[in-house]
Predict the structure.
Amino acid sequence: MTSVAAALARKPDPVPPATSDGVVVAGDIAGANGLAETARLMHQVIEKAGLARGLVPLGLPSVVDVSSADMPKNAALLAVVNAPILPVGLLRLQRDFITGRRVIGMWAWELPVVPKQWHYGAQFVHEIWAPSPFTAAAIETIAPGRVRVVPYPLAAFELPVTGTRSSFGLPEAAVIVLTAVNLHSSATRKNPLGAIAAFKAAFGADTNFLFIMKLSGAEAHPMDLRAIAAAGHAPNIKIINENLAESDLRGLIAASDIVLSLHRSEGFGLIPATAMLLGKPVVATGWSGNLAFMTPETSALVSYQLVPPDDERGVYDIAGALWAEPDIDDAAAQLRRLGHDAERRQTLGLAGQTQASRALGAAPVLAALTANGIS
């Protein structure tokens, strides 16, 4: 699909205009996924700067409804959709939509090697914004000299938070460890089974500690759900299998004591970043995009070994690629240290909050706009 769309869709002008009057943000504007939330957040930041010129639904036919709204011809386009989807989405818009515009893609990827389909998307952008140095280094291999690191500006606004332990039906006295996984994003990569194993190794069946596995997308991945339910069958493990509004998800994070991400790879890591901004200590695999905002001093980074991906869906089975296999024993030790020491949790949470607030503000976005002649 991507190669055919790339052959049919009109490409942007070889040389973009030197200046642009503001930005049109495009993407899965109404979606419940990381890139959709990123598109909304980017629009908020750009709008606050007085540079927003509209929102355009852009994506696959089965996911995004196309809008025929006219947009200013002299505005730049920020397409918050990944490379393989971009030519397909553009083919659904007016044929001259990107003619005369500066086109910027905001892409997220989770391995040091990008798939072949991503090369097609690189033909449709003048510049690419990557949320982490990790992702930028991978994309640089297909678009040399056109990649800029622009972390997601989560700290640009106060994050709305709704919900309490009581409203979520959680005990007030327990130390709660939370892992949140969107199964659409690959259960193998997100590694919920590793998180469950680490919690069990740390606390056994002690009901003074409660593990929450928050899932979304499980209806499309019943085999993953069954495996997680089987592994999580314990008196101190609770599986929440429902889609939550973003503010409610942040409320669940705020109601927890520790957030655990034993991912094998992340392009950025929205859940760990959000947890740090909310002052929660994070235990996470010490590799990939989350190191854009996590350090050994401000989070509990888990040791790992790099191994070739073993992905049953085949998305990450790319020649030459590697990802992390986190050390379960080390993760359990980190959890025990934090779980049994409230003062340590508070200290690490505050350090992480300071670090994430500094790293994830609006300044990189505004600097990138200026560098692209957008005013």
